UniProtKB/TrEMBL annotation:
The gene is rtcR_2. This is Transcriptional regulatory protein RtcR. InterPro entries: P-loop_NTPase, Sigma_54_int, Sigma_54_int_dom_ATP-bd_2. One of its GO terms (biological process) is regulation of DNA-templated transcription. GO terms for molecular function: ATP binding. The lineage of its organism: Bacteria, Pseudomonadati, Pseudomonadota, Gammaproteobacteria, Enterobacterales. PROSITE patterns: SIGMA54_INTERACT_2, SIGMA54_INTERACT_4. Residues 1-98 form the Sigma-54 factor interaction domain. Pfam families: Sigma54_activat (PF00158). Keywords: ATP-binding, Nucleotide-binding, Transcription, Transcription regulation. Gene3D superfamilies: P-loop containing nucleotide triphosphate hydrolases.
Length: 107
């Protein structure tokens, strides 16, 4: 089954959604797809994995999208978000369903 998924993923230029319960191997498969695509020069950037279950409220937005100095109390310097860090590579949002349930008010 993994071989079939790898074949489809390598050929696809579209975003890929890996769906399954915790512990099903989504992280392993995402990293494997990244490695295969990177070996074929389909990715030039990094593999960035975010455990969305740890993101909370406004800090979640700052973590994902970044912020400029002074944007909020404690923002002493500008910081690039993880979305930009993954530019040209792959952003793997692990436990996204958990984040959506606990952060409905922020989005």
């Amino acid at each position: 089954m993994i071989e079939q998924i790898e074949k489809v993923a390598i050929k696809s230029r579209a975003p890929i959604l890996l769906n399954g319960p915790t512990g099903a191997g989504k992280s392993f498969l995402a990293r494997r797809i990244f490695e295969l695509k990177q070996a074929r020069h389909q990715f030039s950037g990094a593999f960035v994995e975010v455990n969305c279950a740890t993101l909370r409220g406004d800090t979640a937005m700052s973590t994902l999208f970044g912020h400029v100095k002074g944007a909020f109390t404690g923002a002493r310097e500008s910081r690039e978000g993880l979305l930009r860090s993954a530019n040209g590579g792959m952003l793997f949002l692990d436990e996204l369903a958990n984040w959506a349930q606990t952060n409905k008010q922020c989005c």
